Amino acid sequence: MAPGLARAHRGGHRLFWVEPGAPADQMNTMPAHGIASILIVEDDPRQLRLYSRALRGYKVTCVSTASAALRELEAARPDLIILDHVLAGGELGVDFLPRLKAAAAHIPVVMISGTLDIAGRLQALQGPDSAHYMLEKPVDLDELERVVKSAITECGLGETVRVLQSLERAEKIEDSDPERRFTERLSRQHSLLNRLRGTSEKPNISLLARDYAVSRRTILRDLHDLVQRGQLDPALDPSDAEG
């Protein structure tokens, strides 16, 4: 087991957490509430051991099914969910995404799969009930650590943009594909999120539309999407006022 981690069993779930005496440089903190917590949904003990090495310093809870994950979410809200696609009992992670997001819309999800094809990965990354990032097995632990840090601090939107852009560079998304337009929309939303971070005033829709060379309706939809995904304060959504 990784240094600074302890383990126990409760109700058939494997639980890992950071011990108070763990070295300070192993602690990954959130400004608002101390050590960041991660819920891992994975049924392979070997993968869990690998993940625990990369996630030293986080408070980590592990369950083997998406059903168990939903029960965990009733008790506590993690800062991040890592969701494997193929789980125990024949469950598929992608099928549970809508339920997980319904239970905790604001929590970013990193999905891991060795079986999903390009179309399946794109589907998992699109829509209000989507994962924020997709990693392929075998998972590179350095990449996992980087993605986890980014997902917790940025709520994952930038990572979603980057993975779709990587598919474009690999020429797996054609210029005319809806996926390219989806990538452009996410990139714009990521920029909007960074631009509005820290403000308490409703945005100037006309100004944003000019800056991004899109219609006011497009900006309104982008802001509404960000609110629906739990990434933007609902008070900044001008949809009702715009009417």
Explain this structure to me?
- The structure is a single chain.
- This protein is 45% helix and 16% strand.
- The chain contains 10 helices and 9 strands.
- Strand 3 and strand 4 form a beta hairpin.
- Helix 2 packs parallel to helix 3, helix 6 packs antiparallel against helix 7 and helix 8 crosses helix 9.
- The N and C termini lie far apart (55 Å).
- The N terminus is likely disordered.
How many DSSP-defined strands? 9
Low-confidence residue ranges: 1-27, 29-33
Tally of structural domains: 2
Helix content: 40-55%
Could you give the order of strands across the largest sheet? 1-2-6-5-7-8-9
CATH topology of the largest domain: Rossmann fold
What labels would you give this structure?
single chain; 243 residues; alpha/beta; Rossmann fold; Arc Repressor Mutant, subunit A; two-stranded antiparallel ribbon; 45% helix
Question: Summarize this, please?
Answer:
With 243 residues, this protein is of the alpha/beta class. The chain has ten helices and nine strands.
Helix/strand layout:
Elements: E1 5-10, E2 13-18, E3 29-30, E4 34-35, E5 37-41, H1 45-54, E6 59-63, H2 66-75, E7 80-84, H3 93-103, E8 109-113, H4 118-124, E9 133-136, H5 141-154, H6 157-169, H7 178-196, H8 205-212, H9 216-228, H10 239-242
Parallel strand pairs: 5-6, 5-7, 7-8, 8-9
Antiparallel strand pairs: 1-2, 2-6, 3-4
Helix pairs in contact: 1-5, 2-3, 6-7, 7-9, 8-9
